[in-house]
Structure formats: C-alpha cells, structure tokens
C-alpha cells in the first residue's frame, strides 16, 4: 500500500516538472512582455535578466507554500486517502489546463487555476462527507476555506478595473511629459522619473520579492517595515541623483528601468507563484511522510491529516531544482514566446497583423468612444488640443528596429505593475501578476493612441478574449477537478492510474501537435520586414512579393479544391465534398487577414504609386475571393445531391467533362507558375487559351442541354448539377484570367492603356 502511494507522490513531482515548464511558459508574459515589446536589449539578454530574477526568487521562496497545505481545505477533517485524491486531481487538471492555454497563446493565471482546482476537489469531497455524516458534525465551513474563493474572485474584478485605469492615466501623463520623441524632453525630468521608478522597483524587490525568503531574518524584515518612509526617501534621493548623472553620461536611463523592472517582476513571480507549481506535490510529499511515520496500522481512510496544519518547511534542494527547471523553461520554451506575442501584439504601437477578429461588443465600444471623442474635440479649446496633439505626434516616435512600442511605455508598464502589486499586498488583496501586468499594458497602449480606428475593434476583442479566458479558467478548473476527484475517490487506484496515463497522453499529444503547428505555420517574415522598413522601394518590393505569394497560393488552392469537389461529385464521396466546403470558408477568413496586411503595406508606398497600383491590387484580391465563392457555388449543390443519394451523373457527361477539367487545371498551373516566377512572357498566350476554353465549355453546356431534350433516361437532378458545374467552371476561367492580368500589372511598372480600358469593363 505504501509503495503505491510512494509511486503517486513520485508522479506528483513528475507532474510538477511539467507544471513548472508550462507554468513558466504561461507567466513569462508577466515580466518579459515590456522588455521584449520595446526591444530594450537582445532577446538573449532579456532572458538572462529574467532568468536571474526567477532563480533568485525560487531559492528564496518558502512561506507561500502554506496555501496548498491548509489555505483552501481544513486538512484535519480529511483522511490521507481523500487528501491524495484531491492533490492528484489538482495536478492532473492543472498541467493539462495550462498547457491548453499556452498552446492557444492566451495568458492565464496560475494562481486562479490552482486555487479553483483545490476548491473544486475539496468542495466535492466535502459535500460527500457532509451527506454521509449521520452525526451532523460537519459543515461546509468546517471542511473548506470559502473566504479564499471570494477573495480571488474579487481580486479579478479589482485588478482588471484598477490596473486598466491606472495604466491609462499614468501613461497619458508620462507621454505628455516626454512625448514620443522623448530624447528631446529629458533634461531634469529623467532624473526624477528614474528616481521614482527605481525606488518603486527597489521597494518592490524588498517588500514583495524577498518578504518570504528564509534567508531574511524576522528582525531585518521588522526593521524594514518600521523604517519604510526613511528607506523610500533615501532611495528616492540616491536614485534620482544617480539616474541624472547616468543621463549626463549618455546612458539610456529607460533601458536600466526596463531591465530592472523585468528582474524585479521575475523575482516576485518566482517567489510568490512557485507555490502554484510545486505546492501541491510538496503537500502530497508531506502527507505521505506523515502517514508512513505515524500511521501505526491505521488505514488510509481513517488517518487524518492534521499535520498539514503546520507551516511548510521546504527543503532547499526542492527550491534549487525548481529554480533550475524554471530557468530552463524560460530559455527554451517556444510556447512562452507565443504567449508573450499575444500580449505584445495587443499593445503594439503601429498597425499590423491582428491576431483576433471583431466582435459586436468591441464595435459598440468603439462607436461610443468615437462619439465621446468627438464631443471632447468640440469642448476642448483649440490651442489645448494642438498642444496635446503635438505631444502625441507619432511621426517623431523613437522605436528600436522591430519594436512594438517605445521605452517610455515599457518603463511605465513595469513600474506601475510593481506598484499596484505592492498596494494590493499592503491591502491584503491577492492581486494576480498576470492580471495586473496584462491589463496595465492594455491601458497604457490605449493612452498612447495605439488603438486607432483601424485596429481598436481587434484589440478590444483580443483583450476581452484574454479576460474571458481568466474566468473560463476558474470555472473549468473548479468543474474538471471536482469531476476528476470524485471519479478517483470511487475508483481508487484504477481511476488514479487511468488519469495518470490520460495526463501523460494529453501532454505528449499536445506537444507533438504544437510542434507540427509551428512547422506548418511559416512565420510571415515578409510582412514584418515590410512594416519595419523605412525604405519606400524596399516596402514596394516586399509588398509585391507578399501579393505574389497570396495570388499563387489561392490559385493553387482553387485548382486542387476544384478537382477534389468534382471528383467528390463524380465518385459520390460526401466526405470530400464536406471537406472542400469547410476548407473554402477557412481560406476566405485567411484571405481577409492577408488582404488587410497588404493594404497596410500599400499605404506605406509613395502615394502616387499606391493610387496607380490600387486598382490592380483590389482586382487580384477580389479575384481570389470570387474563386472561393465559385468553389462554394459548385460544392453546395454537389454536396446536397450526394447527401440525398440521388442518381449519379451519367458516364457520357463524365467523359465530356474530364478533358475540359484537365485543360483548365493545366492553364491554372501555368498561371501560378507565371505569378510565382514573376515572369509573364507567356501571359498573353495563356489568356488566349483561356478564352478558347470558355468557348469549349459553352459548347459543352449546349450539348448537355440538347442531350436532356433528346433522351428521357438522363437523371434531371444530376444533369442540373452538372450544368451548374459547367456554368461555374466558365465563370472560374474568367476570374483567374482577371487574376493573371491583375498580377501582371501590379508587379510591373508599365500598364498599357488599352488593357486598362478593357479591364474596366465587365468580362
């Protein structure tokens, strides 16, 4: 029996390693998004600074472990078996839940996930014990700490609202002081700003990062607490003078603030959130050691876990190893970079590729905000408006190459996050570092006018998606863990073993799929280079390359899907038809994103050239969209026909159609090759052959209609679907001919006037 539970404890620690890996991947956004977004240093340097903070925070963490021992449940009222069911269920749920969020690229709270998993597992067993207790001794309050649940829920609302408002106000004031060309507006303000920021971060490290360290004596902590005001004043004077001197020595003070902020938040994260990753396994380890040492023949269902009421004394080896695992995860995890990308993209200063779509709520908010802005424009004096607009002149923005925002905003994000966490800790509010850092970044980006009318709906939708994910985390964690706990409780070792295997399987499958997804999704380097470049000629070259890839990809997709759909109709393959219909819709959504990227690029080339190329660009893009609609109009009648098991198409019709399809596919392949190679020497020949093909299809349609009139044996339904295919095939030929012309004249600098007049008429 003891051997079985030893195996469970070992597995808990194995899951803890996975939990550390996925947890650090998720929470890296808390302390790295500002440094990465502002390109304050090389990514390797940022990783080193964050890793130093994480490792130092991990080995100094200890006091927070009590939450997993007796912060949620009352261990004296639970048996060893019940506690092990809860703890194993928590770890299985937590690892899989966090891995799902990381794979989706959404930051979530490890604190909320752990607390609500413990609540879910404890709640379901508490209800079972209360229902099975004939003496009426137990109540829900005796079994679990409900106050913790309410405090976490309240912290969600408070942290979101306070952090967003504070981030907006502080960033707005900071931008008025420094403007986007901050190097011209430093003088003496940088010393004061640097002094305030560095003092706040130093105080954050002392109060929040080291408060639970076993290496800091109680007397020292008491002295720091008693002399807070003196320490703050002394640090402010010292750091103000130091930052001013560094500025005179041509040192960028903002870089120092951002790197110090990254270090301090990483230290506090590891010191306080380590319990979210290893607290539960350590509680299981303590429970097992207590049972082995003191059971004296008592059964696992009768041995009560009163020992967990004592404070945790975590062995140094666990803290050290945890620090090493966290540093490894931080340095190697691709998912960490994916989560950081979500936060950075939503707070990006410039327009670019938007990860999220548009929602009705976001559109309503933007309309209300626009109306409010128009009202303020009317009531604010013109000279005041002009002064404010000069301070927010983005033409003078100082951005590192490829940065999403500047160092001023990065500094505000980090300093304000640290201050809000200090305030929350002082007021005994369990603010989540994830909530605070993410929402501060959203508020500061709003104040910086990064959410323009072209991108606001996407950014707001993205923010709501992330916030919604936090609430979903709490609900899913509570529900799933409760379900897993009750199954384990009634199935004993069999259920535990099944869930252990399930957790391992899901983790392995998730990582394999994520790796495949990363390989399949080629990074859009062309678009990034196009948006980062300042050279108009380079932007035009990259835009043309991007457009070529879009057009060639869609004509290739159209050809393959056309063959798939027509084969599905001929062979009565319903699965192929459904797949073709679904993929066409996904391809349409992707085209919308690509088109938006290319419009952003079109705006960055010289205006005269943009006007000239605008017609050809939109003709090519619309041709891609029309090809997809054409496929849809072919596929829907075919799918309905096959799904209803109507009579198949006649062999004579198939024999007539296949040569036409082969000729169409060959011409589309030649068109794709011309676009990919940017060589249109044989374009005129392809256009002539396409016109000839249209005539052949017209003749085939007439022959089919004559066949219908001459014979009664032909299935009318199948013949009508076949006629629709021919009609849409003829339309498809016209569309890709337009696409070829559009690509030819978009890529080249000379457009014959005669050709332009022809294209102005509907074919």
Percent of residues in β-strands: under 5%
Radius of gyration: 32 Å
Distance between the termini: 82 Å
Q: What is the number of domains?
A: 2
Helix content: over 70%
The average pLDDT value, as a whole number, equals: 80
In total, the number of strands is: 0
Low-confidence sequence ranges: 750-763
Total number of helical segments? 26
Backbone shape: flat
Protein described:
- The protein has 26 helices and no strands.
- Mean pLDDT is 80; it is low at 750-763.
- The radius of gyration is 32 Å and the shape is flat.
- The chain starts with a helix and ends with a helix.
- 79% of the residues lie in helices and 0% in strands.
- It has helices at residues 2-37, 43-59, 66-71, 80-104, 110-132, 140-143, 146-178, 189-209, 218-226, 228-248, 253-294, 316-332, 334-346, 360-379, 382-391, 407-426, 433-447, 456-520, 525-532, 536-571, 574-602, 607-643, 651-677, 683-710, 716-747, 753-759.
- The chain folds into two domains: 2-509, no CATH class; 525-759, Up-down Bundle (Methane Monooxygenase Hydroxylase, Chain G, domain 1), CATH 1.20.58.
- α1 crosses α12, α14 crosses α18 (456-520) and α20 (536-571) runs antiparallel to α23.
- With 763 residues, it is mainly α.
């Amino acid at each position: 029996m003891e051997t079985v539970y030893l195996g469970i404890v070992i597995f808990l620690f194995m899951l803890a390693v996975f939990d550390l890996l996925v947890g650090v991947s998720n929470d890296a956004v808390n302390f790295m998004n500002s440094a990465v977004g502002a390109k304050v240093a090389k990514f390797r340097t940022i990783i080193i600074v964050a890793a130093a903070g994480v490792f130092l925070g991990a080995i100094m963490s200890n006091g927070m472990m009590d939450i997993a021992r007796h912060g949620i449940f009352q261990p004296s009222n639970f048996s060893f078996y019940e506690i092990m069911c809860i703890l194993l269920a928590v770890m299985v749920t937590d690892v899989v839940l966090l891995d799902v969020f990381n794979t989706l690229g959404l930051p979530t709270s490890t604190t909320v996930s752990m607390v609500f998993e413990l609540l879910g597992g404890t709640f379901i067993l508490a209800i079972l014990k209360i229902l099975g207790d004939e003496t009426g001794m137990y109540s829900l309050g005796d079994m679990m700490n409900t106050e913790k649940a309410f405090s976490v829920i309240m912290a969600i609302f408070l942290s979101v609202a306070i952090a967003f408002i504070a981030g907006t106000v502080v960033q707005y004031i900071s931008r008025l002081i420094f403007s986007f060309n901050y190097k011209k507006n430093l003088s003496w303000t940088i010393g004061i700003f640097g002094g305030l920021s560095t003092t706040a971060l130093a105080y954050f490290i002392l109060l929040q990062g080291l408060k639970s360290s076993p290496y800091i004596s109680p007397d020292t902590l008491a002295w720091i607490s008693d002399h807070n005001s003196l320490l703050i004043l002394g640090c402010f004077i010292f750091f103000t003078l130091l930052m001013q001197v560094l500025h005179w020595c041509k040192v960028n003070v903002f870089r120092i603030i951002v790197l110090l902020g990254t270090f301090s938040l990483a230290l506090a994260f590891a010191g306080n959130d380590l319990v979210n990753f290893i607290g539960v396994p350590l509680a299981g380890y303590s429970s097992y050691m207590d049972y082995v040492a003191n059971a004296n023949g008592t059964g696992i269902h009768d041995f009560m876990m009163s020992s967990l009421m004592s404070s945790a004394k975590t062995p140094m080896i666990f803290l050290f190893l945890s620090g090493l695992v966290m540093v490894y995860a931080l340095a190697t995890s691709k998912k960490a970079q994916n989560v950081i990308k979500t936060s950075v993209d939503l707070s990006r200063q410039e327009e670019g590729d938007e990860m999220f779509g548009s929602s009705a709520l976001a559109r309503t908010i933007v309309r209300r905000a626009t109306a409010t802005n128009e009202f303020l424009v009317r009531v604010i004096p013109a000279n005041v408006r002009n002064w404010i607009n000069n301070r927010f002149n983005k033409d003078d923005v100082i951005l590192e190459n490829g940065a999403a925002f500047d160092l001023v905003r990065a500094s505000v994000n980090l300093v304000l996050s640290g201050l809000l966490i200090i305030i929350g800790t002082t007021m005994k509010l369990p603010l989540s570092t994830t909530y605070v850092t993410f929402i501060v970044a959203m508020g500061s980006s709003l104040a910086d006018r990064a959410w323009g009318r072209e991108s606001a709906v996407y950014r707001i939708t993205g923010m709501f998606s992330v916030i919604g994910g936090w609430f979903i985390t709490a609900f899913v964690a509570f529900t799933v863990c409760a379900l897993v706990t009750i199954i384990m409780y009634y199935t004993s070792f069999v259920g535990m073993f099944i869930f252990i295997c399930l957790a391992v399987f899901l983790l392995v499958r998730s990582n394999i799929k994520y790796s495949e997804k990363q390989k399949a999704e080629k990074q859009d380097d062309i678009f990034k280079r196009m948006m980062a470049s300042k050279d108009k000629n380079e932007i035009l070259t990259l835009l043309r390359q991007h457009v070529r890839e879009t057009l060639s990809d869609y004509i290739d997709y159209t050809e393959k899907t056309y063959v798939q759909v027509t084969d599905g109709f001929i062979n009565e393959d319903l699965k192929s038809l459904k797949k073709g219909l679904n993929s066409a819709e996904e391809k349409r959504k992707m085209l919308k994103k690509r088109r938006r990227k290319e419009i952003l690029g079109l705006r960055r080339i010289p205006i005269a050239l943009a006007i000239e190329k605008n017609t050809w660009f939109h003709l090519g893009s619309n041709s891609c969209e029309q090809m997809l609609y054409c496929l849809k109009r072919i596929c829907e009648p075919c799918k309905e026909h096959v799904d209803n098991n109507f009579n198949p198409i006649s062999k004579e019709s198939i024999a007539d159609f296949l040569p036409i399809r082969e000729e169409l596919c060959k011409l589309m392949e030649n068109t794709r090759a011309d676009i990919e190679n940017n060589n249109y020497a044989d374009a005129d020949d392809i256009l002539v052959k396409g016109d000839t093909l249209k005539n052949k299809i017209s003749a085939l349609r007439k022959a089919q209609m004559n066949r219908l009139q001459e014979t009664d044996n032909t299935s009318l339904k199948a013949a009508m679907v076949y006629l629709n295919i021919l009609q849409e095939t003829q339309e498809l030929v016209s569309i890709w001919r337009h696409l070829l012309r559009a690509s030819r004249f978009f890529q080249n600098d000379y457009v014959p006037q005669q050709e332009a007049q022809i294209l102005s008429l509907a074919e």
